[in-house]
Amino acid sequence: MAFFQDIFSIFQKKDLPFIESFQEAEGVYTFRFEKSEDVTWKAGQHGLFTITHQKIKNHTRPFTIASAPEENVIQITMKISDNPSEFKKAMLSLTKVDTIKMAGPIGSFYLKEDSPTMLIAGGIGITPFRSIIQQIEAEGNSNNKQIQLMYLDSNKSYIFQDELDQIAKETSVNVTYLHERDHLNKELDKCISSYSNDGHFFVAGPKSMVDATTTYLQTQKVPKRNIKKDVMFGY
Ligand SMILES: Cc1cc2nc3c(=O)[nH]c(=O)nc-3n(C[C@H](O)[C@H](O)[C@H](O)COP(=O)(O)OP(=O)(O)OC[C@H]3O[C@@H](n4cnc5c(N)ncnc54)[C@H](O)[C@@H]3O)c2cc1C
């Protein structure tokens, strides 16, 4: 069913008027666009974004929608190196009169169950979890979901740290910042022994990080059906 919804969504292209962009951290930029009434998504999903204000060759890329629907804005946050692709150069040149197109939302990377949930981010893989956690805050955390966010970044460059810490104070979400894989594995061990087969694990980030984490979870006997992956190809 979700598959057919995705196919349908891909043909629903919307123009998004550009609002603003700013640097989030070194090599990481946030872009915000207007959200019209008819656009919505489930926190954690992604869209296919197309450059329309310039003619470029590869004009479409998938990006997680890093904002929650309740924020009433469409936010994407991306890594941009010193030598950016044509797509990212075009993103940096957006001005207030420009729009981009979004197809979607698509994907099944969103919370469904009320069971204890571990969100595991590697670097830029924090984007779907920003959306999910903002959504939990917007809902008032009424159902007191047990959510633990583990944020791994070897450079200790934790984007969104201030807002994540603020939400952690106001909700039942727990945030742990890590910079070594061994420490992440130890945290995972604790969750696996606390929740055994009830825990759900959401893993997002570059392919190498997602692969290493899911392999570890499976060697620790976490059932495949309890692991969801969001692989950010291109890194
Ligand atoms: C579901 C999803 C969500 C994503 N969300 C984010 C996000 O929130 N923030 C963010 O910064 N990035 C995100 N990405 C990655 C993003 O789409 C780009 O691939 C990435 O930003 C690199 O783009 P680029 O223009 O810099 O480099 P590019 O010029 O596109 O490519 C860089 C390198 O990656 C390879 N590559 C590019 N795309 C793919 C692909 N689909 N499969 C295999 N190899 C590929 C190219 O061949 C090249 O070697 C997401 C990707 C996916 C699939």
Automatic annotation (TrEMBL):
MF GO annotations: oxidoreductase activity
Pfam families recorded: FAD_binding_8, NAD_binding_1
UniProt xrefs under SUPFAM superfamilies: Ferredoxin reductase-like, C-terminal NADP-linked domain, Riboflavin synthase domain-like
Domain of life: Bacteria
Domain FAD-binding FR-type: 11-112
This protein's name: Oxidoreductase
Species of provenance: Gracilibacillus salitolerans
